Amino acid sequence: MTDDSSEISKKEKILLAASKLFLEKDFKTVSTQEIASKAGVAKGTVFHHYENKHLLALAVLDVFVNQMVSDFDKMKETTEPKEIIIGMIHYSMDLVTNSTGLTQLLFQVIGDIDHLTKEPENEVEKQIQNEVRKVENLLVGFINEFAIIFKRMGFENPIAYSRIFIGVLDGLGLQFALNPKPDTKLMEELTTTMIALFTKR
Amino acid sequence: MTDDSSEISKKEKILLAASKLFLEKDFKTVSTQEIASKAGVAKGTVFHHYENKHLLALAVLDVFVNQMVSDFDKMKETTEPKEIIIGMIHYSMDLVTNSTGLTQLLFQVIGDIDHLTKEPENEVEKQIQNEVRKVENLLVGFINEFAIIFKRMGFENPIAYSRIFIGVLDGLGLQFALNPKPDTKLMEELTTTMIALFTKR
Asked: Over B6-71, what HEC string results?
C-alpha cells in the first residue's frame, strides 16, 4: 500500500466509474476518456492506476466476483436449505436482468479458456488467467455448496442436482448476455419454474 | 467453386485433420505444421486454403454447428416429444464428454460478444461475428423448438421450461469445458436427473 489516501480514493473513483460504464455499455464502446470524465480525474490518472482498459475491466470483474462470494456467504446465514435455493435463484435472475454488461464481461473472460493452459505472455494475460481460475474456483465452490444443500433437502444424486442447478444459472446468464433486456413476465415465469424444479422432489 | 476436385479434397483433409486436433487439444497448442502433417499436405497448402489458424478454427466450428443442426433435425423426426427431450439430453452429454476441445472453441467464440456490436476490422473478426450470430440463432432456434415440445407435453410456462432446459445443456457444457473429462458415474447421474426433471410434470 504505497498510495496515500487521496490516491486510493481516486483509484476507487476510477473503478466505480468503470463499473458503471461497463455495466451500461459494451466493453469496446467504453473509452478511457469516458471513464476518466465520469470519475472526475485526468485521463493520465486512469493510466497511472491501470495500465490499459483490459486491466481495468479485469479489476471491475474482480470486484464483482468478490461481491458474489460475499453475497452468497450472507445468503447461507439462513439455516433453511430451501430458502438458500430460492435466494440464489432471485439473486441470479436479478443479476442477469440488471447487470448485463458485467455478465458479458464474465463470459468473455471465461471464454478465454486458452489462458488456463499456456504461459501468460504479458500482464493482461496473467490477470486474465488469474481471473479465469478465480471464476472456475467460484463455480466449483458453488457446485460443492449446493450439493450439500440438496443433500440436506433429501434429494437423490445431490451432486448431479447441484451441477444442473448451477448449470441453469450459468446457461440463463449466457442467454441474456447474448440477448439482453428480458421482459418482466418472462423473468417471473423463469423464477417460478426454477423454484418449482429445484425445491420439490 | 474455383477449386478442382483434388484441391477440394485437400481442403477437406485439412479441415478433418484440424477438427481432430482441436478436439483432442487446446487451440493454442495446435500448430499449423501439426495440422499439415496430419492432413498429409505441405504447410503452405494449409495457408493457401485458410489464411491463418483462427480462420481454420472457425471453419471447424462451422462444420460442428451445421452438424448439430442436422443431428437435431434427425432427432425431431420422432413424433414423441418425450423421446426428443431424452434424445437431446443424451446427445448433449455425449458432446460434453467426447468433444471437449470443440465445446471450448464454441465458448471462446460465444464469449467474444463484443464482435456483435462493433464493425469487424479484418477477415477473422468478420468470420467470428458471423459465427457468433449463427450460434446465437441456433440457441434461439432450440429455445423455440423446445417451447413447442414442452407445450405439446402439457407443461405450464413452456417457454420458461425451454429456456431452462437449453440453459442446463449450455451450463453443463461450460462446466466441462472448464474442467474436462467427467467420470462415467457422474454423467449417468446427470442424465438420469435431467430426464426426471424435464419429462415429468
From this structure: HHHHHHHHHHHHHHHHHHHCCHHHCCHHHHHHHHCCCHHHHHHHCCCHHHHHHHHHHHHHHHHHHH
Same domain (yes/no): B130, B107: yes
* Regions of chain A where pLDDT drops below 50: 1-3
Confidence (pLDDT) at B83: 93
Are A163 and B192 inside 8 Å of each other by CB? no
Query: Which residue range is the domain that position B3 belongs to?
Result: 1-50
| Residues 104-143 (A) with a CB less than 8 A from some CB of B | 104, 107-114, 116-118, 136, 139-140, 143
Residues of B in contact with A168 (CB under 8 A): 164, 167-168, 171
The reply to whether A52 touches chain B by the CB within 8 Å rule is no
Same domain (yes/no): B105, B164: yes
**Do B85 and B137 fall into the same domain?**
yes
Neighbouring residues of A185: CB distance < 8 A, sequence distance ≥ 6: none
Same domain, B40 and B80: no
**In one letter, which amino acid is A171?**
G
User: Do residue A179 and residue B26 have CB atoms under 8 angstroms apart?
Assistant: no
Tell whether A7 and A58 lie within a shared domain: no
Same domain assignment for residues B101 and B56: yes
Prediction ipTM score: 0.85
How far apart are the CA of B199 and the nearest CA of chain A, in angstroms? Answer: 12
Report pLDDT digits (tens) over A120-150. 777 777 877 788 888 888 889 999 999 999 9
